[in-house]
Write a structure and sequence with these properties.
single chain; 294 residues; alpha/beta; Rossmann fold; 6-stranded parallel β-sheet; 3-stranded parallel β-sheet; 10 helices; 41% helix; globular; binds guanine
Length: 294
């Protein structure tokens, strides 16, 4: 069994990006600039965005954090996005999800200019991804592909079962694993809350990618011997004995499933850190594209 060590790989990627930034500086070029918009004060979102901004500093990027109150109207947010679209100093930006309920998420994501959409959530970029065109691939799926690639996990001809059809993880992952090439060339089943016989389908999987958000949903008896297990779940479970008042757990019953798996991602330290590294990679790409346009 091999642990897919997202913490280590993400540090390698950050070091590679930092080296690129050093080269840019040495050539007197502008460094990449990422902006993040956070609306409201959701605890998990605050943590994620804080971590994204800190990672920018670590690799030498410029970063801007824009915090807006929970009562922000859709129009106010759309105005802010327009400002960011037009600000030539900013190469890419993200709007952290989820958004407060008075705001239509789809409308907001469509307002982000596709050239600055480093999350890859705009329909133009999502469509390009589905058509094998060069684009920004959403950071979490991109991070999973990178882990698979760097560890040389075989995907060709394998049966990949994706659990969860979210626009951020499950849906793009199902498209990417079926694309031509490596990682890809996999036969994909996308399962969700309305899937019948989900346990039977999972038992046939060579690769399981779980993005459900249900702690310890995936048990050892549900998976095939030597299956590859990718755990995208990050759930905060309340626990008074912990300093923060909660602990983080994934969708997978890790201690038991790891005995059967050929490769497995831990939580924390698996897919999570990869997401941030790939956001930085997309921002570097956005800077390079921006430079070649201007
Ligand atoms: N919320 C959870 N994951 C993500 C992500 O990858 N990007 C953004 N913008 N919001 C998220």
């Amino acid at each position: 069994m091999t642990v897919l060590d997202g913490k280590k790989v993400s540090n390698d990627i950050k070091a590679e990006i930092a080296a690129e930034v050093e080269k840019m500086k040495a050539n007197g070029e502008k460094v990449p600039h990422l902006a993040a918009v956070l609306v409201g004060n959701d605890g998990a979102s605050l943590t994620y965005v804080g971590s994204k901004v800190r990672s920018c500093k670590r690799v030498g990027f410029e970063s801007t954090l824009i915090q807006m109150p929970n009562t922000t109207s859709e129009l106010e947010l759309l105005k802010k996005i327009e400002e960011l679209n037009e600000n030539d100093d900013i190469d890419g930006f993200i709007v952290q999800l989820p958004l407060p309920k008075q705001i239509d998420t789809q409308k907001v994501l469509m307002a982000v200019h596709p050239d600055k959409d480093v999350d890859g959530f705009h329909p133009t970029n999502f469509g390009k991804m589905a058509l094998d065109m060069s684009t920004f691939i959403p950071a979490t799926p991109f991070g999973i592909l990178e882990l698979i690639e760097r560890y040389g996990v075989e995907t060709q001809g394998k049966h990949t079962v994706v659990i969860g059809r979210s626009h951020i993880v499950g849906r793009p992952m199902s498209i990417l694993m079926g694309r031509k090439g490596f990682p890809g060339n996999s036969t994909v089943t996308l399962t969700h809350s309305r899937t019948k016989n989900i346990t039977q389908i999972i038992s046939q999987a060579d690769i399981v990618i779980s993005a459900l958000g249900k702690p310890k949903f995936l048990k050892a008896e549900m998976v095939k011997d030597d299956a590859v297990i990718i755990d995208v779940g990050i759930t905060r479970v309340p626990d008074e004995t912990k300093e923060k008042g909660y602990y983080i757990t994934g969708d997978v019953d890790y201690e038991n499933v790891k005995k059967k798996a050929s490769y497995i991602t831990p939580v924390p330290g698996g897919v999570g850190p990869m997401t941030i590294a790939m956001l930085l990679k997309n921002t570097l790409l956005a800077r390079e594209r921006h430079r070649s346009r201007s």
